[in-house]
Amino acid sequence: MSQAHSPLKSTAIFSALLSIALAPHAQAKADFMHSTVKQATTIDTLPVIQDWKHAANGVWSASIGDMSQELRYTDLAAEPPRIERLNTLGDPEFPFEADAIRYSVNPDGRIMVRIPCGPDEKLYGYGLQLDKVNQTSRVLELNVDHWGKGGGRTHAPVPFYVSSKGYGVFFNTARFLKVFNQISNRKDATQRPPEVDRNPPKDEIASQPGKWQASPMGDSVEAAISGSGLELMVFAGDSMLEVVQRYNLYSGGGALPPLWGLGFWHRVHAHHNAEQVEAEVAEYTENKFPLDVIGLEPGWMTKSYPCTFEWQTKRFPDPQAFTQGLLDQGIRLNLWENPYISQNAKLYEDMFPLSGSHTVWLGIVPDYTLPEARNLLAAQHKADHFDIGISGYKMDEVDGYDRWLWPDHATFPSGNSAEALRQTYGMLLQKMLYQDLFKANNQRTYSLVRASNGAASGYPFVIYSDSYDHEQYITGLSTASLCGILWTPEIRSAGSSREWLNRMQTVCFSPMANLNAWASGVKPWDFPEVTDAVRDVIELRMRLLPYFYSAFASYNRDGIPPVRAMILEGDFKDTAATVIEGELDSETNPYATGEIIEKNDQFMFGPSIMVAPFYGKHATERSVQLPAGNWYNFYTGELAGNNTSISVTAAELKDRTPLFVKEGAVIPMFTEAPLNSKDAKGQDLDRAPLRQRQPAACELYEDDATTFDYQRGASRIRTLSVDADGALEVKIEGNGPSLFGEILNVEQMTK
Amino acid sequence: MSQAHSPLKSTAIFSALLSIALAPHAQAKADFMHSTVKQATTIDTLPVIQDWKHAANGVWSASIGDMSQELRYTDLAAEPPRIERLNTLGDPEFPFEADAIRYSVNPDGRIMVRIPCGPDEKLYGYGLQLDKVNQTSRVLELNVDHWGKGGGRTHAPVPFYVSSKGYGVFFNTARFLKVFNQISNRKDATQRPPEVDRNPPKDEIASQPGKWQASPMGDSVEAAISGSGLELMVFAGDSMLEVVQRYNLYSGGGALPPLWGLGFWHRVHAHHNAEQVEAEVAEYTENKFPLDVIGLEPGWMTKSYPCTFEWQTKRFPDPQAFTQGLLDQGIRLNLWENPYISQNAKLYEDMFPLSGSHTVWLGIVPDYTLPEARNLLAAQHKADHFDIGISGYKMDEVDGYDRWLWPDHATFPSGNSAEALRQTYGMLLQKMLYQDLFKANNQRTYSLVRASNGAASGYPFVIYSDSYDHEQYITGLSTASLCGILWTPEIRSAGSSREWLNRMQTVCFSPMANLNAWASGVKPWDFPEVTDAVRDVIELRMRLLPYFYSAFASYNRDGIPPVRAMILEGDFKDTAATVIEGELDSETNPYATGEIIEKNDQFMFGPSIMVAPFYGKHATERSVQLPAGNWYNFYTGELAGNNTSISVTAAELKDRTPLFVKEGAVIPMFTEAPLNSKDAKGQDLDRAPLRQRQPAACELYEDDATTFDYQRGASRIRTLSVDADGALEVKIEGNGPSLFGEILNVEQMTK
Q1: Beta carbons of B37 and A195 less than 8 Å apart
Q2: Residues B504, B426: one domain?
Q3: ipTM over 0.95
């Protein structure tokens, strides 16, 4: 793709910049100098973005200003765009009128883009937002940061939104982006709502054109950066899911973790030594709980906050033997780290000139946009970690807060801005670990990272947070799926056995079943009342490995998120509604200004299972919205409903998670739950017993489960078809290795 | 003062800007284009700000870049700098080394200023911050906004800080300013703290150089804007109070309200009509509660949110008669408004071309930097409000939120940026009302406004908020005093009679005794258990009118805030301390990262009275820090302590506010509490009975109480001196009118 833009546009922008540089007195400060009344910008006078380049079927890009100094998220993607696959998806038309999308370059250097939308459109996305899925009438500052105060700052503030009308817009520039999403009406807008008096006399209330709104609905998305250029991409689709697919495919497709990554994860205390870790692993065996990955927290290295990346031999005297001993049991080792380098690190001296002007916890901040810096870190990681069998990392502290990281005015030796580094630091480290360490050595990883951003769907890294609100963690499963992000609603502790069970159930239907209770010290079996129910859901995840691994293969191949928001299912109703407290003539709370509430506590797990977890106030009873089409109770196989809302209780489900399966699905499952993914290989499969009398089918993906050979064709797909009478047929495509065993046709549930 | 800066510096900055405009390919994107490793900026390479202009004794300014397009707060001040008075304050030296203050202009347009400070310095200020006074190790975004989430966004985010070493720094540019206050160490800083391992093995804990800190103390203030120029001002002083004095004097001195402004305020329901308002006024008389001002909320106008500014005659059929009727009782009328204009307003058509690109609640947003726009509004306000006797305004909604106001990329017909308009909108409206409406007609006003900013001390406008946390409201009395802002911890409602009393007591010792309970409908006498105590504190405020009015005269004349932070008293101990929860080897909460807590719940009211209100958890008992020097119980006159901490209870004080008076003070008070300020005129005075046996004195200021004639010399000061035996002497300076009556020498307290 060419980045060139029309000479005309360039000229206009450079003129604007030049007017700042060369003619400082050309613009007056009104009466503080002298008065010069001009007209404020009107929509018609905003330049139109015209040179849309067709990047693939249903994908277009255009740029404003000078992109040569700007980082683009797509430049940092894990894999190149999947143009061939994209071109199999049909060739829709550009979803806007030719002159619809306009921009401006303000005298103060802000580049603003205006994208119109209709009053009936709903806009979703903008990354991992933990409070809401529907982003109507909001202002978002898309800056990488901890999640905490909302407003757009989050671990993965992906500048991509999807419209209910079937298109998506991606701001492909690593800048802080301030988005006014269907809010802030221009005075010359033609679509704006009518003006309403907030305090009319009683005899005028009836003639008001509606209720007063604190945030009147706007007719566009207007978004701005301060930077020298902005690239905009547009994705079309027959559905929101197809738009998301295209976004993911353009980002290189979805990540495919190794099979072990989908097993159960457990992190041990930061100060544990090798013996203590081995003892915790043994506890899993004793308690008959599945386990695939052990995570070490900061104490494994000689210095942390900032880091050395070197083994603390007082705690781990023989890292290689320790790692190998775990691997022999099928247990992979994951290492916590943050990327700021201690004066005590061997890397310090070489990294010093490659680092930015400011420190983080007094450690230097390498400029990982420089290949020299990435190469230094990758080489050390290969020698000290990869070569002894380390399987992945938990890359912490790449998100925020402002008071922890470098200031926005810091400088870096590459010349990239502090802002661009902040927006991409998590991606740069994913790039280094994925491309330079693991892929270069033909081993897949599945890892954790605390920040990511646009075009990152190809990275096998899962985001986590410190915020720990169960309802928000469920919302994250939906929002992450709209922008190529994997999210784990990890479990750390609980105030009651019910909360422990509910959180454990949620995390088992997420991209990573991660127990991060090292600080609280709670083990899965520490609430005896629910130990069996907790073991049950972890075992169910293990039995569903073939189903979920195949869902990830579809993410990789087709861009369909393995866990995803209900709004990506065609018939789900977005129940978001503006609630105005305090009516016009109410005297109870005139300060109330309304709030948008929504119900986003259900999500899809794999192609066909809908999960409606118990949580918070809905700890043992909740309502479930069943979209149009027949939905079956996963456990009993009975029809649960069609286009309706039902109530479910923990008691009637025997303390299991409410799960519902779509008409036409086949859910392949292991007959027994393996305790470790190594035992999954070759194990036989059955399927969930659904009393549907329609033909049904699914695809079962297989490869060697750990290397990149699948990218060179070493995979196969078994298609399982069941006819209306329940007869099973299996077809095999591809020459890759078999991974799972035979497909039995018993159709039974064990519990 | 000249704004010129050296040709050398200008050249450097324009070169930087030109390099953006003319040579976009000169800077590489590292490996995304090709690799160019440079060194990140070091402190030594940052250009030094050298051309400090001596603006007055102890006041210097310098500018970076091009200020011709930037609004300066000082350009919007109420009155010109008080150079003559400043030059009576001594002539201190510039408080920094010659090459100490440096700057940079980053390629992305950020202008950064670096101002060093020592590890033993404490920095205060940055406007009306409601959570803390001490701002050590914080990042603040100084953007005008509602108070809510902290982080620097607030109603008056004044970019001015004061150091415990006796200097202040003011960023005199109306831009969003991001401040890294004693945080973010540069890698080449010489003063930075030692690196500490966060997770050492047990045998290394003892040899650590200290405790690990989440935010290691930095050696400077670094602050940045995106804009074309930044003016920096430095204020010196023998004490922090003198620094604040100089800042206020340079801003034109402090505001002097009319005497009636210091009486009791009451706001009525938004939907009340004239009869209902008159009935509420009558209730005050019946209940024998003082009252000076009635505030009307939005329903007084034909349309609100957005506004017409025109009388709603269905509620107020004869505004002139109504206003005059109240004035006849000594009651002033204050009108709520916001500055966004309805399509139904007569002003709409003329104002349309003078307004910005975007609307607020669908109303146009006049560009009040244009004199044309201010003149239109002032003329309408004069004809429809001022000429019938309106005394002031409550200028609402000039602060935030982002989702309510215009976007940062909006454009305005003056060419001023949306950002500059956001930072100054509250000031522009104060300027219009103060200069063009009230001062032009030789009437003082005392009004409310929801946003202000730098150099605003001369405006007789008081800030209020919706946030309503009592402890924060007390903190605001301290922080506002450091930056030329007046703040009212207004009372709206209460969950208990004790809370009602405590909040009423706090507000009575604030710049404005404002009851804003129109929404809750609560009246001062609605909690019968505390009605007498509430009346008592309002009466005390009325008795103290001569004392408090004189304190405002000193604000006006000398720049000394009438209500102010204890840290401006020489001997008050700043008790802020970093609390680390979770020790290095603790396993209880390894996520804890420490927090700075402080005690800022005492403040000075006038020159000599220290107020220590009851609030929140300290509703009926609290500790009080008495600084060095003798402090006397205001009510009993007994010595309370000297350089000590004492405990006080509501019971022992008979439900009165803890008040303590400094050695050497005379507190002039009316012998009786007037029910309205008109009754204050000519009323005799006594003084609080303090059992001190030292000479004591105070100044009693008098003028006509309502006009600007005082600016032309029509004022007088009576100095009251009391010798060690209690004998009183009175000296009169100035030829202005007498306002208060005789000074009696009874020395008694009534209650």
Answers
A1: no
A2: yes
A3: no
